Amino acid sequence: MKFHVLTIFPDFFRGPFEHGVIQRAREKGLIEIQIHDLRDWTYDRHRTVDDRPFGGGEGMLLKAAPIFESVESIWPAKRAGQKVVLLSAQGRKFDQALAREYSKLDELLLICGRYEGVDERVAQHLADDEVSIGDYVLSGGELPAAVVVDTVARLIDGVLGNEMSAVAESFENGLLDCPQWTRPAEFRGWKVPEVLIGGNHEQIRRWRLEAAREKTARHRPDLLKRD
Ligand code: SAM
């Protein structure tokens, strides 16, 4: 799968995409990530990407023209299997189900807003989806874009070494993942639950399911109420 990220801070992604699972997936050719500098689609000396909002108000907005032109030059003819996503605090909430939907695409293009946001014509006439990573406001769409790429990439076949690991994780069965421990079996007097040391796989499976239910009820009762 190919990811495109449109940003005014291309260097921002040096860290997030150059470690661990994502880096290995890139090396194996399972995913490709192209970072595009929005300022490459400006024509003035100052490479201006922003302007004041109509009607007044604080701050600046990213202009529509460079964003439309960059997307149209990345995909001169958009095909099925390609989606444009605008990262926005006003968007629909990103979750594991949406990540799974995106993982079936051929290409995903993520637009990172900055300043006070983005000219609304991008949401209305260019983006397929407007997506928020949570109910809080960040300074830009770069962290959200990294969150979306990371979450989607780990659902692509072959990206996680063990094919089962994504299936057993939080949100996949309407539950959070169960709590887990590693060695030593006792640390500062806190012991690992006996059943996990016993080696009875059926008992462990049942204990983990119950522990996942209990943790979900405690931290995210909303997940249990969904059908
Ligand atoms: N004025 C906007 C509002 O109140 O909805 C916030 C703009 S924010 C300072 C600048 C950019 O950060 C946004 O255009 C968006 O790309 C990104 N951003 C901020 N919070 C986000 C969130 N929760 N999810 C996704 N993107 C977000």
Helix fraction, binned, reads 25-40%
Instruction: Assign the CATH class of the largest domain.
Output: Alpha Beta
* Span of the ends, CA to CA: 31 Å
Mean pLDDT across all residues, rounded? 96
Number of helices: 8
Ligands bound, unique? S-adenosylmethionine
Whole-number radius of gyration?
Answer: 21 Å
CATH superfamily heading of the largest domain: SPOUT methyltransferase, trefoil knot domain
Secondary-structure arrangement, i.e. CATH architecture of the largest domain: 3-Layer(aba) Sandwich
Tally the structural domains: 2
Unreliable spans: none
Can you tell me about this structure?
This protein is α/β, with parallel strands linked by helices and 227 residues long. The protein has two domains: 2-153, SPOUT methyltransferase, trefoil knot domain (Alpha/beta knot, 3-Layer(aba) Sandwich), CATH 3.40.1280; 168-224, Orthogonal Bundle (Trp Operon Repressor, Chain A). The chain is built from eight helices and nine strands. The strands form three sheets. It has a five-stranded parallel β-sheet, with helices on both faces. The chain has a two-stranded antiparallel sheet with strand order 3-4. A two-stranded antiparallel ribbon has the order 8-9. Strand 1, helix 1 (20-27) and strand 2 (32-37) form a beta-alpha-beta unit. The model has no long low-confidence stretch (mean pLDDT 96). Bound molecules: S-adenosylmethionine.
